[in-house]
């Protein structure tokens, strides 16, 4: 925890230091302004000593009193100017720094691998970023408006009192040391509970975000009561931790109140003793009382200030952990960039484990020639999707290597790899932006005409044209305002626009009705021209025309051939899958008959 606290402060300091001129202006203005504050009581001491003086005429005393008042007014004007400088310069410093911190957190978050996002709630990640910048604002406010003024004012008071009366000086030093030490100890003790409370709040936010995302499941699976109880349980944990930390604040304030009473009574008692010995003037008494008031004002907020700073550090803790978490998949130090590629893909002795005990891919060897069309087939969990994820370097290999045009994908930059691959996933996720922006995401510099052409090819221009806002229609979070088939056609349009040399289709027509599927198949035929294509499909009727069909089971290739070749293996896995999907229309006597095969394919389509 302490290491993370130091790391948080280092990050805050690094980004504040980018505006060093503003930082110097703020710090020196705060110090200068707060040096003048404790100086004013010395003039009031002089004022009252003159007022009760009997050594001069009233006219002379009045002139001296007016001179003292002019000095006090001049100091107040300088302080007023100083506070204005502090206000404007600190506002600019904080706004600039907060903006840069937000940009830093955003970029650092998105550098993490796909698996990192799979293991964390969206809501909790958003909260971490927001609370990190909020914590900076909170901490910088406390430092500028409370900590520096406290240190400056107390230093001036001690220096002045050491010259005026050593007894008061020593008494206040002892009191301040005890007061701050106890506050520091109590606040440090409370910090671990603040971090625990913050973690519990993150979990509560995660539950909230998860149920909002899955609100349809909550309703349709009658999970309302269960989710309410789950949320209540998490909220109760937060309540208990908040109750403890808030009550602990009351205890700290009670301790501070006791210290305040001891200072006030002790100082008055000491003043009485010194007055009896004629060591204290009326002006001295005014000076002491003014300083006691300043000490109360500054130190009463000391404990609260430390608690707020520590609370801010606790709020920033989780984001600091994220920032310090090593990025799982990084570009090699001397990574090259893919320029133009032909699209030949080679998996050489590839092995991949999700964990030490869970092996997904074992000793996989596969070559896909440039512009070859290959389908991956197999039961759920066989490793098809994992092969695609490894190709796109969503995970690093446990062993072996993957080559594209003879280059190891681990030796090239990730962005240049992704730039050459278009993915149409089974369940496309869209930004809550316009349809024009979502499609153009595949090629940011595309013109409107190019976007519309890609939409026509993907057969989504028709439904877009019927919308009131047409291409300016916002699709909702994750594209929720569109149907599954519409989202998939938008994703295909995005891939068409990108026109990458390698195309990956992961059940790209699974959400479409028969009519839409026929239209999309035509679009995909156009899209697949002159490209290396990998298709994952459960509906075997959609992959009959592939150059090769590869059957995967338990992370290994068990069959490889064309549709016709694989059907000839009467007891082969692909042949059995085909029979199941055809609904039993293929018999052992006519498996090799082309006409019956096509009939079976049509029947399979009907069954689908």
SSE topology sketch:
Elements: H1 2-17, H2 20-51, H3 58-110, H4 114-118, H5 122-164, H6 166-213, H7 215-220, H8 224-276, H9 282-324, E1 345-353, E2 359-368, E3 373-377, H10 384-391, E4 399-404, E5 407-408, H11 414-419, E6 421-424, H12 435-440, H13 448-457, H14 461-465, H15 484-498, E7 502-506, H16 514-527, E8 532-536, E9 548-553, E10 556-561, H17 563-567, H18 573-582, H19 594-607
Parallel strand pairs: 3-8, 3-9, 6-7, 7-8
Antiparallel strand pairs: 1-2, 1-4, 4-5, 9-10
Helix pairs in contact: 1-9, 2-3, 2-5, 2-9, 3-5, 5-6, 5-9, 6-8, 6-9, 8-9, 13-15, 15-16
Description:
The relative contact order is 0.08. β1 (345-353) and β2 (359-368) form a beta hairpin. The model is unreliable at 584-608 (pLDDT under 50). The radius of gyration is 37 Å and the shape is elongated. The chain has helices at 2-17, 20-51, 58-110, 114-118, 122-164, 166-213, 215-220, 224-276, 282-324, 384-391, 414-419, 435-440, 448-457, 461-465, 484-498, 514-527, 563-567, 573-582, 594-607; strands at 345-353, 359-368, 373-377, 399-404, 407-408, 421-424, 502-506, 532-536, 548-553, 556-561. α2 (20-51) packs antiparallel against α3 (58-110), α8 (224-276) runs antiparallel to α9 and α15 packs parallel to α16 (514-527). The chain is α/β, with parallel strands linked by helices and 608 residues long. The strands form two sheets. Strands 6-7-8-3-9-10 form a six-stranded mixed sheet, with helices on both faces. It contains 19 helices and ten strands.
């Amino acid at each position: 925890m302490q290491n993370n606290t130091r790391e948080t402060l280092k990050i805050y300091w690094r980004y504040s230091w980018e505006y060093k001129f503003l930082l110097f202006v703020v710090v020196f203005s705060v110090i200068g302004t707060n040096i003048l504050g404790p100086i004013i009581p010395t003039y009031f001491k002089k004022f009252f000593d003159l007022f009760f003086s009997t050594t001069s005429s009233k006219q002379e005393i009045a002139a001296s009193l007016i001179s003292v008042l002019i000095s006090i007014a001049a100091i107040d004007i300088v302080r007023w100017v100083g506070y204005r400088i502090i206000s404007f310069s600190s506002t600019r410093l904080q706004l600039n720094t907060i903006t840069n911190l937000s940009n830093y957190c955003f970029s650092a978050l998105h550098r993490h691998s796909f698996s990192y996002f799979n293991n964390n709630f969206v809501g909790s990640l958003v909260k971490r970023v927001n609370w990190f910048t909020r914590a900076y604002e909170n901490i910088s406010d406390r430092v500028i408006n409370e900590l520096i003024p406290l240190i400056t004012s107390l230093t001036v008071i001690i220096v002045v009192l050491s010259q005026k009366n050593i007894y008061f000086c020593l008494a206040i030093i002892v009191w301040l040391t005890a007061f701050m030490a106890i506050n520091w100890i109590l606040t440090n003790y409370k910090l671990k509970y603040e971090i625990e409370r913050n973690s519990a709040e993150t979990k509560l936010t995660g539950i909230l975000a998860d149920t909002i995302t899955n609100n349809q499941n909550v309703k349709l699976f009658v999970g309302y009561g269960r989710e309410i109880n789950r949320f209540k349980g998490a909220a109760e944990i937060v309540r208990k931790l908040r109750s403890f930390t808030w009550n602990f604040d009351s205890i700290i304030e009670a301790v501070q109140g006791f210290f305040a009473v001891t200072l006030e009574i002790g100082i008055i008692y000491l003043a009485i003793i010194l007055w009896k010995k004629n060591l204290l003037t009326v002006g001295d008494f005014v000076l002491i009382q003014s300083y006691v008031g300043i000490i109360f004002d500054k130190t009463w907020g000391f404990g609260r200030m430390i608690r707020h700073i520590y609370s801010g550090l606790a709020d920033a803790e989780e984001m600091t952990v994220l920032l310090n978490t090593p990025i799982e998949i990084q570009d090699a130090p001397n990574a090259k960039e893919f320029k133009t590629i032909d699209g030949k893909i080679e998996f050489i002795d590839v092995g991949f484990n999700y964990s030490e005990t869970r092996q997904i891919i074992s000793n996989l060897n596969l070559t896909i020639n440039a512009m070859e069309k290959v389908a991956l087939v197999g039961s759920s969990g066989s490793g098809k999707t994992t092969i695609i994820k490894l190709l796109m370097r969503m995970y690093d290999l446990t062993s072996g290597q993957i080559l594209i045009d003879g280059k190891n994908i681990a030796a090239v930059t990730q962005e240049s790899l992704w730039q050459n691959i278009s993915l149409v996933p089974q369940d496309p996720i869209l930004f809550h932006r316009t349809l024009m922006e979502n499609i153009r995401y595949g090629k940011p510099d595309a013109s409107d005409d190019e976007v519309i052409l890609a939409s026509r090819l993907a057969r989504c221009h028709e439904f877009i044209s019927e919308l009131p806002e047409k291409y300016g229609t916002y699709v909702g979070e994750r594209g929720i305002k569109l149907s599954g088939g519409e989202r998939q056609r938008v994703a295909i349009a995005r891939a068409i626009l990108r026109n990458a040399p390698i195309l990956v289709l992961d059940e790209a027509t699974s959400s479409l009705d028969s009519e839409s599927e026929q239209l999309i198949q035509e679009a995909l035929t156009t899209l697949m021209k002159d490209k290396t294509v990998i298709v994952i499909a459960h509906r075997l009727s959609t992959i009959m025309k592939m150059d090769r069909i590869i059957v995967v089971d338990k992370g290994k290739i068990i069959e490889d051939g064309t549709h016709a070749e694989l059907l000839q293996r009467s007891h082969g896995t692909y042949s059995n899958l085909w029979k199941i999907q055809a609904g039993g229309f293929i018999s052992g006597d006519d498996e090799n008959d082309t006409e019956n095969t096509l009939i079976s394919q049509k029947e399979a389509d009907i069954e689908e």
